[in-house]
Design brief:
alpha+beta; 6-stranded antiparallel beta sheet; 46% helix; YutD-like_sf; YutD-like; Transcriptional regulator
Amino acid sequence: MSTKQNKQHTSDKKESQKTADQSNEQTVTEEVTAVLEEIIEETKPEKIKGEIVTLTDETNLLIGDRPYRIVMDYREGFNAEKLGERYSEVLSRYDYIVGDWGYEQLRLKGFFDATNRRAHPDQRIDALEDYLYEYCNFGCAYFVIERVGGKKEKNTQRRKKKKNQNRNNQAHIDEKKAPVESMRKQPVIKNRKPASNKTTTKTTEKAAERPTKSTSKKNFTIRQREE
């Protein structure tokens, strides 16, 4: 075998070894990646879905330990078992929960109270008709349940606290205003002498300073010439 052939053979051997090393590295990397993905999936917390629904009477129920009451049950759309299966913790922040049926599947949607001005108009319960018209099947069965207590009581306490705070602030402002007004002194207006008096006084003083000219003529007799 010639020298040239030996060099070519050595070069081909190196390239094949390099390719094998690269493939081994890729295989190892893929295996490590797969193991990491499995670990991440195992440690990822699963979203808790579902809750026990208990009917206390014909119109009141408990979802877990949260009290609700049935506001509307159109075409017997309310189903406690399906509600418990579809319920999610996210819905606990809303004042109302609307459930509508489509293709034998229950869909839940949360709404805020109509007096909640912080919420978007589409998320308030007074927009229910628009929601049913735009997003629900025509004439579908649905139900509406309202949260009893909880958030509404907190909102009422906040409003009372805010009103009391405003009253206290107003009383504090009134207290500050009172002494300021009483301590104000009315300005004393000095009676000024009329300007004409000053002018007259100055004229009199100047006249006194000037030498007095005798306005009276000397008495003399005109004698008649004798003829």
